[in-house]
Amino acid sequence: MATQKPETLWDETQAAAVLKLEPKTLNQWRARKKADQPPYVKVGRLVRYRPSAVAAWITERERSSSPAEKSISGDVLGK
Predict the structure, then answer these.
(1) In 3D, which of 69, 70, 49 has the Cα closest to residue 58?
(2) 49 close to 56: Cβ distance less than 8 angstroms
(3) Which of 22, 42, 53, 72 is the most buried (most CB within 10 A)?
(4) Are residues 6 and 52 in contact, defined by beta-carbon separation less than 8 angstroms?
(5) 33: phi > 0 → left, psi -120 to 50 → alpha, else beta; which?
(6) 0.85 cut: is pTM over it?
(7) What does the pLDDT look like over 54-74, one tens digit per residue?
């Protein structure tokens, strides 16, 4: 039976770089217990982020164009 290698965890600096944020922003969000923040893992005193969880968090925040923009782009794309 093959064992799956655990996902490498990002530290705060790595996660912030991917999100184009300052690490202190993530720290402030956690301190304020902001509801809408990337999920993180506590490993002792350390804070770590799963790359897959950060990617899912980004995906959940995707917004589509307004209906008017959709119809215009749909016309251009032939949809």
Answers:
(1) 49
(2) no
(3) 53
(4) no
(5) left
(6) no
(7) 999 999 998 887 665 555 444
